[in-house]
Each structure stands twice: as structure tokens, then as C-alpha cells.
Amino acid sequence: MQLLDQSPSESADMEMGPQIGPQEDFLLSDADIVIFGGQAGGGKSYGLLLEATRHIDIPTFQAVIFRREFTEVSAAGGLWDTAREIYPWMGGRPSENRYQYKFPSGAKISFAHMQHEDDRLKWQGSQIPMIGFDELTTFTWSQFSFMLSRNRSTCGVPPYIRATCNPDPDHFLRKLIGWWIDDDTGLSIKERSGVIRYFVNLDDELHWADTPDELTTRFPGSIPKSLTFINSTVFDNRILMRENPEYLANLQALPKIDRERLLRGNWNARATAGMYFQRHWFEIVEAAPSYGQEIRYWDRAATDAASKNAAQSSWTAGVRMRRSPGGVYYVLDVCRFQGSPLEVERTIRQVASQDGKSVTIGIEQDPGQAGKAEAQLQVRNLAGYNARVNPVHESKGVRAKPVSAQAEAGNVKLVRGAWNEAFLREVENFDGTDACTSDQVDALSGAFMMLNSPKRVGTW
Prior knowledge:
Elements: H1 22-28, E1 33-37, H2 44-51, E2 62-67, H3 71-74, H4 79-84, E3 93-95, E4 100-102, E5 108-113, E6 130-133, H5 141-150, E7 160-165, H6 172-176, E8 197-202, E9 205-209, H7 212-218, E10 225-231, H8 238-243, H9 246-252, H10 256-262, E11 283-285, E12 293-299, E13 316-323, E14 329-337, H11 341-355, E15 360-365, H12 369-380, E16 387-391, H13 396-408, E17 412-415, H14 420-429, H15 439-451
Helix pairs in contact: 1-2, 13-15
């Protein structure tokens, strides 16, 4: 596909089309439901936008393309921005306030979201000939299945659904397209990509067959739907590889679990121990460079070591990290203990005194008003030190990914100390879930994040 440096008025007869390969297969498929993607960078969203234009010469044709959140539609570089590169060439005129394009025939393509589960109910009574889901793995089964009932048509175009996706082993889509995926490797079966199969949904159980006749014979009166999965990779997107070759390097630099999913297309890749950190990634050195930005980041708990359940409870952990001018991160020390809230407060101040006032102190703020008040109290108790609050909203696994990628690249080193073994044991057992012990990992993630935040910490 090629876009010319001309305005629509200068080339009214310009033709646009898909890239040869999976994107073209996606637009040519006549299945009722086509799932497209499986890896990042394969031209999925662009293909979905092109597909919506297939019937714009029919006056009563309408298409709706969904993203889970509205910002994913409206954000810079999102669907709406990308549609600007395509639809005006085809005579489409945008309605900014409605996020809709209207074409000369009267056909319309709209963009919408279903951020909340009940947002699907806003579409009751709708008749939508073509429904698109960009990143279907962000939607729930109830949202997807409800919109199947809205996929109706009186404009002469048989109703159909198109969706894009990236791998998620725990999403309903993994089971839905299971025939197209190798159970052992989690990778797409090349020979099955684009092959159409048929199913009927009876009492929330899907029954599959290779032909619709098989299903109508087994289940008289049923009306089978056809479905296929078309795999695409970043290497299929030749325009992206030509114009933005560094995108491949970005995928290769992802943390291991994201790299497995987004670069290799692995539908079995789950967050497990060893997926985020491995012991041999952390070189142990005798000393760190004597200069660089530095922080001691605290993930606090309030469990007394004498408590009955102390062994199964959280610890307070403070990771002291220094970033050298060369971009290497050194974990200088980890302070880890259990104690009452008063003991936690006293110990943090004592450690701050030992570290010195040149070391920034990061205080993790848990969600909610209580977490905010507690963090602010801790900062007041550190009067005289450069203490800063870091509100956290993402899951532990999400917060750990940036430092995981740097650790795998060999850019996180440990200064030799008695704390090394306990630290390494925890990080290599970290699986990204809230159930795992992760106090040191949380402190490590927080220290790394604050050292790379726009508000610089520490001194050179």
C-alpha cells in the first residue's frame, strides 16, 4: 500500500489497497468472523480501517469500529488519526464531535468504545452490518457475544465481524481460535491460517465442523457461523519495516513475556517464575561507580516479626539504586525487615540518615485516600530529606517490565552484599501476580521508574 504526497482533491481517482500477504487475505476473506493478527506490527489496525470501506458505495451501509477505551480511539496516532490517512481519499468527510466519517453515498463509518461492561447495552436495538473490534483481547466475552446479536443488516450486505488481536493465553479468544494454534508451542499453525471453519453456539457451548452441512445435520435447525484466524507478523508489514525499521528493535527489547507474545506470537506465554527475571542476568560486582543519580525506594509493610503470620506476610523493603552516566543501574543495597508501623517509620528514617541527604527517598503510595495519607505522613517524618511520593496504579507485573528488560540486557548489576541471595531468590521466583512475594521486586521497579521519570532524582 502506498500513500501519495497529494491532497484528496489532487488525486480523486487514487486507488488504495492492502499489502500483499496476510493483510490482503484479511480483506479477501468471506467468513462471517475474521480474526486478524497474533503479533505486533502486522498492519492489523490499518487492515481493519480498510475493511470498513468495502461497501461505502451502498447508501445505507454502516460500520462501527470499537476500541475498549475512548482514548485509544482519539489519542494521537490512534484509530481516528489513522483514518484521516485513508478515508478522505475515498470522499469521506469527518464529523469530529461524533467520531464518524460520512461518504458521498451516505454510508457511514463510526468509532466507539465499550470501556465498561454495561456499555454494550447502549447498542440495544442497533443494526450494524459491519462490526470491527480493534484489539479484541481487551474486550470480554459478554461484550463480544452481545454485539453478535447487533450484527444485523437490511442494506443488502450480509452482516459480518472483523477483529484484530495480540496473544493473551487467558482470554476467551485463545479458546475460540484454538484450532488455528499449536497447543504445544502456542504459535500459529501456518497451514491453517485463513482456513474457514464453522460453529454453532448451543447453551453457551461452541460446536465446530469443517462444513456448515455437518453442523446442520448434527443440530437440525441451527444456523452455523463461519470463522477464520489469519496470522500476521511485523515481517509481513513491509511498509513499516522499510519506513520504521527500528520498530523491530523495539520489539526485540521488550521484556521476555511481552517479546514472546508480541514478536513471536506465542499464545501460551504466561507470566511465570523466571519469565520476568533470571538469576544470571544480574552480575555481582565489588563496587559501583562513585557518581550517578541515586535513590532509596521503599515498599512498606506493617507486619511485626513476632506476629503469628509473619512468615507469610509482607516485608518492608528499601532498594538503593544508582544509575551511572553510561546507563547501567547498580543495586547498592537492600534493606528488608518486618516490623510494626512505628518500627517501619523509625527504620526508614535511620536508613535515610545512614544513606545521607544526597540520596533521594522514594515512598510508594498505595491506591486510595488511605494510601495517599499514609505516604504523605511518611514524607513529613522524613523532613530534611529529599523524599518523594510515587503513586502506583498498575499491577506488580506491569511495573516490573521496564526493569526486567534492562536486567535481561545486562544493565542491572548488584554490588556484593549479604542481601544478594535473598534478593536473587525473590526476583527469580517473581511471576507478576499479586499472590507472589514481591516486596524487593516492587522496590526495585519503583527505584528504576523514579530514576527514569521526567523529574530527575539525585545528583551527579
